[in-house]
């Protein structure tokens, strides 16, 4: 291997931990059958799923993963948000949605499940999720 090739490999290895350390704050509101089920907030490491489970009358499990878009033609504030939502029923966890959303950092993005021809609002949807992603800067990140 040439000295240049070794330098590029070393630079890539040194950069990899910095990329993997990107963390995001995902603030969301989840409505199920027209009722606010919760306002979960998660800190998510890039490309690593994070889950939150809530019991109670309207039990749910929310799993999120933030994936940076690695395309130089796409603005750096555009992210992929992988979302899985499950509801606790008599038979255990039932998957309600499993989707991937394009999201702009700092702006709300939504996911909804409605009947055909129905307007998607928190009150009318069987499932309505609104999420906002913010990149945590090193000074903002908890240890």
Brief account:
With 143 residues, this protein is mostly beta strands. The protein has one helix spanning 3-20, and strands spanning 23-32, 35-38, 41-45, 50-54, 60-68, 78-89, 92-104, 108-113, 127-136.
Give a written overview of the molecule.
The structure is a single chain. The chain is mainly beta and 143 residues long. It has one domain. Helix content is 13%, strand content 52%. Strands 1, 2, 3, 8 and 9 form a five-stranded antiparallel sheet that branches. Strands 4-5-6-7 form a four-stranded antiparallel sheet, with no helix packed on it. β4 and β5 (60-68) form a beta hairpin.
List keywords for this structure.
single chain, 143 residues, mainly beta, 4-stranded antiparallel sheet, 1 helix, 13% helix, globular
- Based on CA atoms alone, the radius of gyration comes out at 18 Å
Name the structural class: mainly beta
- Number of domains as seen in the coordinates: 1
Q: Determine the fraction of residues in helical runs and give it as a percent range.
A: 10-25%
Outline the low-pLDDT stretches.
5-11, 13-20
- State the shape: globular
In terms of DSSP E residues, the strand content is: over 45%
Averaged pLDDT, please?
Answer: 86
Total beta strands: 9
The tally of helices reads 1
Distance between the termini: 39 Å
How many strands, which pairing sense, and closed or not: the largest β-sheet? Answer: 5 strands, antiparallel
